Amino acid sequence: MDRYGADVLNGDWRRRGRPAPAEVPAEPGLVVEDAGTGWCGAVTRVEKAGGMQVVHLEDRRGRTRGFPLGSGFLVDGQPVVLTPPRRAAATVLAEARRAESRTASGSTAVRGRRATVAAASRLFVEGRHDAELVEKVWGDDLRVEGVVVEMMDGVDDLPAAIAEFGPGAGRRMGVLVDHLVPGTKESGIVDAVRALPGARGHVKVLGHPYVDVWQSVRPARLGLDAWPVVPRGQDWKHGICAALGWPHDSQADIALAWKRILGRVRSYADLEPTLLASVEELIDFVTAPETP
């Protein structure tokens, strides 16, 4: 027999005799008061920030303030524990399921199918970085279609590359070119190529306006408002690395910089529309059935 009874200080003595706060989903529009500061406002959104979930409350003057999601709130004067909104949780789940059914290029994923035997038609790009970016975003689609991506090491000798490939019926050649804007060296080469005998209907050359394929990655993916401007006469990739404070003394440094950039690309949504349009059109060209 315990002659002194239970320890009155054991447990949460401040809440003894009072019911536990109700759990309330932080749905948009719910009017909530932060008990600690007295800030009162309607829930606008819940997001993850700094490793925690934060609820944003907008007061009647339109000012917004964020608070850690959880306890310490009042609804209609009663203490509550705010939990993630039900609709947000359902949306996250639905988006995850949709993502699983899509490739990085946004097309419907084909499960359980082996890569198609390589087709005669090919997609050519200028260099390794272009090829790696195309593979990351469109690789699943290209394997289903049996399209191989080949590197040319630049476009200076594009006519020779075309002659070596030998395009013709059932053997199309799609070419992606960097910095394809009027007045550039690249535009002059492409104009000459388009006039080559045998190129019509069998060779399609498209490009993007960026100096390098690095620039086709949206700068926001790297936490930038815009890509740095590199002065004329300076190597563009080295200049970009220098401007961003990245090592750039060796080719290994440049390769690591590209891996850093490529690692931020998750899907087509992280690329600029001009690149997307050109690659998609080239894939359509080399996979289109031949017309009699």
Description:
- With 292 residues, the protein is of the alpha/beta class.
- Among the domains are: 22-89, SH3 type barrels (Roll), CATH 2.30.30; 122-217 and 265-287, Rossmann fold (3-Layer(aba) Sandwich), CATH 3.40.50.
- It is built from seven helices and eleven strands.
- It has helices spanning 86-100, 128-145, 158-165, 185-194, 236-244, 251-262, 273-287; strands spanning 22-25, 31-34, 40-49, 52-58, 64-68, 73-75, 78-83, 122-125, 148-151, 173-177, 203-207.
- The strands form two sheets. It has a seven-stranded mixed sheet, with no helix packed on it.
- A hairpin with a 2-residue loop joins β3 (40-49) and β4.
- The longest helix is centred in the middle third of the chain and has 18 residues, at 128-145.
- The chain is elongated.
- The N and C termini lie far apart (100 Å).
- The mean pLDDT is 84.
Helical stretch tally: 7
- Strand sequence of the main sheet, in spatial order? 1-7-6-2-3-4-5
SSE pattern, N- to C-terminal: EEEEEEEHEHEHEHEHHH
CATH architecture of the domain at 122-217 and 265-287: 3-Layer(aba) Sandwich
- What general outline do the C-alpha atoms trace? elongated
Largest sheet: 7 strands, mixed
* Termini Cα gap: 100 Å
Which fold name corresponds to the CATH topology of the domain at 122-217 and 265-287? Answer: Rossmann fold
SS class: alpha/beta
